[in-house]
Amino acid sequence: MIESFETFLAVAAAGSFSEVARRQDVAVSSVTRKIDALEAELGSKLFHRSPRRLALTDAGEQFLPRARLILGELAGAKEALNAGDAEPRGLLTVTAPTVFGRRHVVGALASFLRRYPDIEVDLHLIDQIVDLSEQRMDVAIRIGLLPDSDLRATTLAQVRLVTCASPAYLARKGRPHSPEDLLQHDCITVASPPAPGFVWRYAGVNRNQPLPVRGSFRTDDKDGMLQAALQGLGVLHIATWVVCDQLRSGELVALFPDEAGAPSSPGMPGIHAVRLPGRSHATKARLFIDHLRAEIGDTPWWDRMLQQDRGVPA
């Protein structure tokens, strides 16, 4: 039965009996027999089959997350039994957004590997959403509002936004005293439509709708936005985890001080670690997620620093 579950998940991911047979180095008929046996056991067809296309049925769609969960629980139990008191070892694969990964994941991985020297890590920094099953990833760091899925998610921190600019820009253009004043300023914005929660929205301003700010420089790269702000190209509205160091050094100035490091509002996007049930490396994934969460802290260390600078008790 377990082999049938594993074959079902492999076929669902590949969309092909022959591709799974090729990967497993078995005959296509062997893969087909396992799916036939599983369908007979469940009393439901799991795939629509035709010479040109293989697709999950409604029953297959419903069974897919349950199969992953069952195999995940089994793999976790097996790994826990085999591990005993032994130190965790082997490969852990992690993916994270490029800028967040460089600034906050690499350091956490360094201390994680010092703590667990028998573990090896492959870190993939990429801004696109990675299919954990297809790419065989153990942990993904994702920033934003998570859609419903069968992934196991752990919230690491809430995102807090701050509006800031360089002293050179403020000397040249003047300092905005309220969010409405931003409409008269050069604002560094994204080149593509912003994700929900990352727009220029301020409580009680513009009927709580996003401000239609404009500027001469746009980019989708957070480091590019930061460098543009440091060069005095305009006002920046960005997550505190990006600009904490520059705010503390004075290279950037928070325009509305109560905003920086203030408690996040409901509905704000979060920073999450997600993993897929069914991976055999569940114990290592949980260990790393717990380690990363502890490194960041209940109040993220970058927000805690800004609160301390403002004289707010940590």
Write the SSE topology.
Elements: H1 2-14, H2 17-24, H3 28-42, E1 47-49, E2 54-56, H4 58-83, E3 90-96, H5 98-115, E4 119-125, H6 132-135, E5 139-144, E6 152-158, E7 161-165, H7 167-173, E8 187-188, H8 222-230, E9 235-239, H9 240-249, E10 253-254, E11 270-275, H10 282-296, H11 301-309
Parallel strand pairs: 3-4, 3-5, 8-9
Antiparallel strand pairs: 1-2, 5-11, 6-11, 7-9, 7-10
Helix pairs in contact: 1-3, 1-4, 2-3, 5-10, 9-11
Describe the overall structure.
Residues 1-57 form the HTH lysR-type domain. It comes from Roseateles saccharophilus. This protein is of the alpha/beta class and 314 residues long. The protein has three domains: 2-83, Arc Repressor Mutant, subunit A, CATH 1.10.10; 90-158 and 267-299, Periplasmic binding protein-like II (D-Maltodextrin-Binding Protein, domain 2), CATH 3.40.190; 161-254, D-Maltodextrin-Binding Protein, domain 2. The protein is 43% helix and 17% strand. The chain contains eleven helices and eleven strands. The chain has helices spanning 2-14, 17-24, 28-42, 58-83, 98-115, 132-135, 167-173, 222-230, 240-249, 282-296, 301-309; strands spanning 47-49, 54-56, 90-96, 119-125, 139-144, 152-158, 161-165, 187-188, 235-239, 253-254, 270-275. A five-stranded mixed beta sheet has the order 4-3-5-11-6, with helices on one face. Helix 1 crosses helix 4 (58-83). The longest helix has 26 residues, at 58-83. It starts with a helix and ends in a 5-residue tail after the last helix.
